[in-house]
């Protein structure tokens, strides 16, 4: 990425904070990161936390940015894009991290011919261990694709997916996924307390176990299925727990939950597509 590339974030909320923190930690020059939001109090907090330039006017930010990252809620995006349309003659790369909203809708709101990437990161980007799925529309050049990879790989692992439907699948898996693991930690903590453990100790054991299992899965050549088999001795305690999970159809519970997230992402896209 050129040292002079300027990235402007529209929306200074949780995800923008995670991505900007990751970019900063990866050595991206702070002076080339800008953010706009309608909340002046949040903006001044971001300026203090991150040392970046802040704007209350999205148009002013857009005119000064080579890459514009949309980090607002889905319902706001159409207004934001339509206001921006007269201010993007310099043809910046548009990266939308907004759940559900289709690239065709974004392109139409921007007046057509925009280079658009849809990306779905997740909040561990804050710590540089995010997971992101990405796709482009036809207007995105090879150089812009490489630039996107450079930006998003600075906050974790990223993968190109073949079409827009797969962005909704990524949303259901890794976009919303951290919350599934938080729920597992919460449930294991409560179950540990029910078995007599002190709550603080149960919580710390749950968190450390999630971290350890995740590190093992990411560093081992074995599949997660093989790793599970290795720690499940015949007639042992783990087997008793796994059999209980399976009797209660754990796989189906997970599959239904992810299908609900996928369907919700599709519905958001459909509801906000004024051409649908
Ligand atoms: N959180 C996640 O884990 C996650 C993961 C992947 C993708 N995403 C996507 O990322 C996007 C942002 O999520 P988030 O969690 O960061 O939301 P958020 O914390 O609510 O941040 C959005 C920010 O945009 C501001 N805003 C509203 N209208 C605006 C406008 N016209 N111009 C500029 N800024 C405006 C909001 O201000 P007000 O609050 O005052 O309205 C808020 O500060 C969403 O579309 C979501 O689908 C989120």
UniProtKB/TrEMBL annotation:
Pathway: Amino-acid biosynthesis; L-proline biosynthesis; L-proline from L-glutamate 5-semialdehyde: step 1/1
First-tier enzyme category under EC: oxidoreductase
Keyword Amino-acid biosynthesis included in the entry's annotation: yes
An example Gene Ontology CC term for this record: cytoplasm
Main subcellular location: cytoplasm
Record InterPro entries: 6-PGluconate_DH-like_C_sf, NAD(P)-bd_dom_sf, P5C_Rdtase_cat_N, P5CR_dimer, Pyrroline-COOH_reductase
HAMAP family referenced in this protein's UniProt entry, alphabetically: P5C_reductase
Protein's UniProt name: Pyrroline-5-carboxylate reductase
Species assigned in the record: endosymbiont of Bathymodiolus septemdierum str. Myojin knoll
């Amino acid at each position: 990425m050129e040292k002079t590339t300027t990235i402007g974030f529209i929306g200074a909320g949780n995800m923008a904070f995670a991505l900007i923190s990751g970019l900063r930690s990866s050595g991206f020059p702070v002076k080339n990161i800008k953010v706009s939001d309608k909340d002046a109090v949040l903006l001044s907090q971001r300026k203090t936390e991150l040392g970046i330039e802040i704007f209350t006017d999205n148009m002013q930010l857009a005119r000064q940015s080579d890459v514009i990252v949309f980090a607002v809620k889905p319902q706001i995006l159409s207004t934001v894009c339509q206001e921006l349309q007269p201010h993007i003659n310099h043809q910046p790369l548009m990266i939308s991290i907004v759940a559900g909203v289709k690239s065709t809708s974004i392109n139409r709101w921007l007046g057509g011919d925009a280079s658009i990437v849809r990306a779905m990161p997740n909040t561990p980007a804050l710590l540089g261990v995010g997971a992101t799925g990405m796709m482009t529309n036809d207007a995105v050049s090879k150089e812009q694709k490489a630039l996107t990879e450079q930006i998003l790989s600075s906050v974790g692992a990223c993968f190109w997916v073949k079409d827009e439907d797969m962005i909704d699948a990524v949303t259901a898996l890794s976009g919303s996924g951290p919350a599934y693991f938080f729920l597992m930690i919460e449930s294991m903590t409560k179950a540990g307390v029910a078995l007599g453990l002190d709550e603080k100790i149960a919580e710390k054991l749950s968190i450390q176990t999630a971290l350890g299992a995740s590190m093992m899965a990411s560093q081992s050549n074995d599949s997660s299925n093989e790793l599970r088999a290795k720690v499940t001795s015949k007639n042992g305690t783990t087997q008793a727990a796994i059999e209980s999970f399976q009797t209660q159809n754990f796989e189906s519970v997970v599959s239904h939950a992810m299908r609900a997230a996928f369907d919700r992402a599709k519905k958001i896209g459909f509801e906000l597509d004024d051409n649908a």
